[in-house]
Amino acid sequence: MAGKGKHVIYWILLVVLVAGLGGFGVRNFGGSVRNVATVGQTEIDVPTYARALQAEMQAQSQASGKPMTGAEAQAAGVDRQVLQTLLGQASLDEAARMAGLSVGDDAVREQIVAIPAFQGADGKFDRSAYEMALQRNGLSTAEFEHQVRTELARNILQAALVSGLAPQPSYGDAVLKYLGEKAAITYAPVDAAALDAPVPAPTEDEIKAFYDANPDLFRLPERKAITYVWLTPEMVASQVPVDDAALHAAYDARRDEFVRPPRRMVDRLGFADDAAAEAAKSAIDSGQTTFDQLLADRKLSEEDVDLGMVEQSDLGDAGPAVFALDDTGVVGPLPSPVGPALFRVNAILTAQETPFEEARATLAEDLQQEGARDLLDGQREKLNDLLAGGATLEDLADKTDMQLGQITWTGSEDQGIAAYEGFRTAAETVTEDDYPEIHSLEDGALYAIRLDSVTPPEVPPLADVHDKAAELAQAKATHDALVAKATALAAQVSDGGDLAALGLTPKSLTGLTRRGVIAELPPGAIDTVFKLEPGKADVIAGADDAYVVRLDSVTPPDPAAPESQALRTAVDNQAAQGIASDLLTALAQSIEAKEGFTINQAAVNAVHSRLP
After folding, report:
1. Based on the structure, what is the number of domains in the chain?
2. Which of 608, 429, 439, 605 is nearest to 69 (CA)?
3. Between the CA of residue 207 and those of 192, 217, 221, 468, 509, what are the distances in Å?
4. Range of weakest confidence among 22-36, 67-81, 91-105, 172-186
5. Better pLDDT: 122 or 71
6. Residue 597, Cα to own-chain centre: how many angstroms?
7. Can you give the residue range of the structural domain that contains 303?
8. Helices 141-162 and 105-113: crossing angle, nearest 10°?
């Protein structure tokens, strides 16, 4: 919390103003429902809780890629998390109030005018934009400015409490030593060639023993026998007539797609005057510098000067000279909206034109697909009427264009109709009591499904998976033999043996830290390495391989090295932030215990009732 400081106010205010909660219904809860909670004399009003809850739901929706409903939010505890956060903030606000902390009007004004949501096109504070934004969110200027004042006072309290907090030096020393140590290792794989003899094929008794000991390797998932009918736009596209007039109209509407003028991928670098631009161009021509070096000298990135793919008309007066280049390169100085500029052409796309006759097939297919979707949409009600009248899916396949199919659904299918997300969702949730109905898929296709039976998860008889069991039993026996051989070799290496002399092919790695991974070895190798004593070896076993690893040396970090100092700074900062967070949490809990807090469950329920 201490590290966030002045940025906290921006996050909270932007959530309030940009989240777009006008349709959430936080304005009118009735006069009897005012606050959802209080801490001492500090109140958490209904709109504040509603906005914070919606903001968190939106954040989680963006993270998951799908909208979160109110029921899902409550099931996941999002509402409790938000309320707890607001209670913590209210406790600190109460502490600030009790300490008499506040800020003046100038500080509030400075904070508000700096918020981008309240600025006009010229980047300056726009009073009308400010008032409209607040009005959309059901806030008066007095209410909002009170929130800003409270937040700033809370920041002052937090800064005062956590200023100067730092961990004991011994803590940083210990963590730096632990994280900064660097290991050097030698390792070698142990493969089948290192075994004294090939591993024999498993006997029938060994196969059965492996099968009995590892039922989960053979267990079949739940399987649903599903019958479905479907009708896609492709299936009826041939029924949609397309005449020349419609094709020509579509070609004209999509002319930009079929007739493309020459284009260039262009960067533009502006200068203060012609003399500076000409000097830069001369330096490029003479080889004294490059366009990229000019960007680096001015601390600009390629994104700062990238104009993207442009046509000649996009560049104004500079267009003819830029498009006169036959190859990539730099041209200029030329006039531009940012002053005299150098233009770098990175790629050249020549003019492209697809005549109507060549585009005809594509246009006809697209028009037929569009018409097919309309055709299917018009048939949906008729097909549902047939089902309501007692028709089965088989009847639909006989009497209409719909096609019948069966699928054994386990959840991993992704071909044919199972490629549609809508069908996968329906297959996951369908029950034997569900009545078949016609639904639409993502591309306008129609379908209906029926669950015929459900086979629960089961382990098939050994006879059905005998070959798989034999293969897996052989693999395990081989792996066990490799690990046993590696263990014997590691013991010899620990006693001073040389990996190469033992018939292995060793490799070495240096500079390994506890924060890294060893890509060449199985997961967890770092932990094993740092548990060894120098000169000792151990076995690192993967899923189907094994390695002998010897720790050659461990080098402590140099406290004066830049990387050590950066690590020490990061460790100290993280520890200080943890101490600050614990301190503020303890203060909030102390205020809640001393001054008391209440939660108005009726107000909380009123907010929840309006969740989407």
Report:
1. 4
2. 608
3. 21, 13, 22, 10, 40
4. 22-36
5. 71
6. 37
7. 262-350
8. 100
Binned at pLDDT 50, 70 and 90, residue 20 comes out as very low
CA gap 324, 530 in Å, rounded? 64
Polymer length in residues for the chain: 612
In this predicted structure, the answer to whether residue 158 has a pLDDT above a threshold of 80 is: no
d(CA 238, CA 460): 46
pLDDT score of 15 more than 70: no
Dig out the tokens for 588 from the structure.
């909030």
Closest by alpha carbon to 396, among 149, 231, 538? 231
Lowest-confidence pick of 165-179, 245-259, 590-604: 245-259
148 shares a domain with 12: yes
Three-class DSSP category at 412: coil
Q: What angle do CA 520, 523, 525 make, to 5 degrees?
A: 75
Both structure tokens of 40 = 């001492």
- For the residues 147-173, what does the mean pLDDT come to? 80
Residues 362, 417, single domain; the answer is: yes
Rounded CA-CA distance 380/378 in Å is 6
Edge-to-edge order in the sheet of strand 42-45 = 42-45, 35-39, 597-599
Cis amide prior to 262 (ω within 30 degrees): no
Which of 350, 370, 389 is the C-terminal boundary of a domain?
350
CA-CA distance, 466 to 275, in Å (whole number)?
A: 83
Same domain, 345 and 418: no
Among 212, 223, 270, smallest CA distance to 452 is for 223
Give Dmax over CA atoms of the chain in angstroms.
Answer: 90
- Provide the whole-model pTM: 0.51
- Find the mean pLDDT for residues 537-554: 92
Q: Which among 467, 465, 474 is positioned nearest to 202, based on CA atoms?
A: 474
**Identity at 285, one-letter amino acid code:** D
For the cut 90, the answer to whether the pLDDT of residue 55 exceeds it is no
Q: What average pLDDT does range 565-572 have in this prediction? A: 87
Looking at the structure, tell me whether residues 383 and 234 fall in a common domain. yes
